[in-house]
Amino acid sequence: MLESQTSKKQTFTLLTGRTIYQGVGKEYGKMSEDYFKSVAICEIDPNDLEELGIKANDNIKITTKFGSVVVRAVESLRAPHPKSVFMPYGAWANLVIESKTDGTGMPSYKGIPVTIESTRGNVLTLRELLKKCYRKVKL
After folding, report:
1. Is the N or C terminus of the chain more exposed, i.e. has fewer CB atoms within 10 Å?
2. For the CA atoms of 116, 131, 105, 88, what is the dihedral angle to 10 degrees?
3. Domain 9-133 classification at class level
4. Half-sphere exposure of 47 (CA within 13 A, CB side)
5. pLDDT per residue over 62-93, tens digit each?
6. How far apart are CA 74 and CA 59, in angstroms?
7. Where are the domains of the chain?
8. What angle do CA 101, 132, 30 make, to 5 degrees?
9. Interatomic CA distance for residues 94 and 100, integer angstroms
10. Comparing C-alpha atoms, which of 109, 107, 139 is closest to residue 126?
């Protein structure tokens, strides 16, 4: 379990989707630094960052009833959207969403209640994340 820096923790609604930066990063490969920097993030409203006592580029822990993950906080350029946060699709987002598809073939990536808090934990690279979560992956 990762130790939090502060006791500030708040609940938000998580939305996930694709971004142009994710697409560009993917062109360099999913193991690239460009992809990592574009996907292992959570975009947060500037006012919410302030309320949490978190600065842009700080590491944060996102927790749902399905799991938790450490990502980098990014100040959203699409504010205001209080209490709504965004994560790009990818391995980091997959750790905090429901895996059931309810017969649709795709899990729900929208409207997921999450808590966010500052953390001293590190953001794992894709290689590290796969090894930790899916121990059978050979990389």
Report:
1. N
2. 40
3. mainly beta
4. 8
5. 999 999 999 999 999 998 999 999 999 999 99
6. 10
7. 9-133
8. 70
9. 12
10. 139
